[in-house]
Write a structure and sequence with these properties.
This protein is an alpha/beta fold. Helix content is about 40%, strand content about 25%. The longest helix is centred in the last third of the chain and has 18 residues.
Length: about 220
Amino acid sequence: MRILIVEDEKPLTDAMTEILRQNHYQVDAVYHGSHGLEYARSNLYDLILLDIMLPGIDGLSVLKTLRKEHITTPVIILTAKSEVADIITGLDAGSDDYLAKPFSTGELLARIRALSRRSTSYNDEILSCGDLSFNKNTMELSCGADSLKLGLKESQLMELLLNNAGRIMPKDLLIEKIWGLDSNAEYNNIEVYISFLRQKMTFLGTRTQIRTIRGVGYQLEGKDA
């Protein structure tokens, strides 16, 4: 399960990140509202922990924008406020749950487990583009009756491309999403995994293609059989 934390209090963010990673969750963290919106739009995450008070774009505005764009990733709102009116505002904006700071580690993990049990109602297990489909649970890439299993990085890259089919995905963004903000990964890392995916897509005989946009990045272009 991959979780996005959007919270400007760095000590709290660092603590949550460490706790979640110890509990075997994949975690990305950003500290600015506009960055949170950009990351959430990737549709790569199974859950978002979103603070209300953020620099740039506040959390409620981020949430409302996501819901208007039909991005239904489960969201837990984090806030120092605990009044009933604030809870109602967050729920009306489209949040799935609400945690008032300070909260315990046990409560945070319990809320995440509860939402993860419902996550399949928000995020389809099967992603598709043209004649190509990908099962997120089994990491199998399929075209017609043929299928093969992808590795972890291949799966993450394919999921990101499928969730953004038709959009140009810059190399820098792909590196951030898959390897993380603090990674030393370079463009050749992306190029290697794009090559792996293309080889497997050729093996499957799909007409869907990963186009190279020179000097920018890549674009998944769907074509039916």
